[in-house]
Every structure is written in C-alpha cells, then in structure tokens.
Amino acid sequence: MLRYAITHRAEYSGNPNYRLESVVRETAGWGTAGIEFIQLREKDLAASDQIALTRRILDAVRGTGSRVLVNARVDVAVAAGADGVHLTGSTGELRPKQVREVFREAGLGIPFVSMSCHSVAEVGRAREEAADAVLFGPVFGKAVNGVEVLPGAGLEELRMACAAAAGMPVFALGGVTWQRADECVAAGAVGVAGIRLFRG
Quick check: 91 and 98 in contact, CB under 8 A? Predict the structure, then answer.
C-alpha cells in the first residue's frame, strides 16, 4: 500500500502560524518512515516562503526515496527543484503535459504529476490528460469539528473510479483511517492519501 502525506500546518495545531520548522521535522519523519509521496500544501505562504520550505523538506527527506510535490504552484516546484506537482483541477491551472514541458524547459527531470478528482468522469479526464496518479475523494466524507461538510463518495464509487483510471494509480482520500485503508485497496486504490492520517 502506497502512502501520500499532505502537509497543512494549520491542521497540525489549529494555528496557521505553526512554526515551519515543525513541518520540516514532520516531513523528515515521513521520509524516515518511507512514505512515498509528500505534498507541500501551504497555500497561504508567499511564493518565496514556499520555495524555501520546499527546499528544506527536500533536504530533510534526501536519500529516503520520498518524492516531494508542491500543491498547484508549478513555479514554486521548479524554483525549488521539487519532484513534481499536485494539480487541484482549478480553472486556469496548467495541465500535466504543460507541467512536464515547464520542467523540461527548466532543465529538470520528468516531474510526477498528481491530480485531485471528485468524480469518475474527472478520473477519466485525468487519465486522458496523462496524469501520473489521482487523489480521489472524499471517499468517506469530510468533517470539520465533527460536523460532516462534504458527504463521502463511498467504496463503490472508489471502485468505479479505479476502473475508469485504467491502470493509472488512484489514492483514496477523505475520511480514510488506517482501519479502512485495506477496504480502499480492495476497491482498487494503490494506497491512501491524507492530512490527518499521517499525523504522529
């Protein structure tokens, strides 16, 4: 089972000003634990701060095999030398092939490009656009302070999404616990993704 951890320092402590050093320590631990993908999702930071943080995380996980992706900001990923980018599907965002072209023009290697998908149709489009993987969810719903704000798609929808992916890796996201991770894999996911899931 592959693991895809997502940073979001406000979630760590309930405080968006949580020290960035703590994010670096957390991701270093993820690297040591062999977590395959780490997505930097600190959207409120200025680009220069995101670049600096990405570089520190890359240093922290060097040699562990963990790949560091930057949420949405292709410019930050290129400037920091990240391993790839996570695309959110927002209007105006670059597509996977365009991201690879930007990396190529910058003289970097081939980036890993993951995409957020919330429906089977979106998974099909991500496959057509040659994404390397998708994060599908929320599988089990999204709750804020114990109140469900987004209903879960369910395991059957996840199974259909994995079928639509036609071999493209699908990570289950949203309300996933370690107790339910095996159910997601049984439905066809290659692994699980999350923010709270990987907190120590």
Answer: no
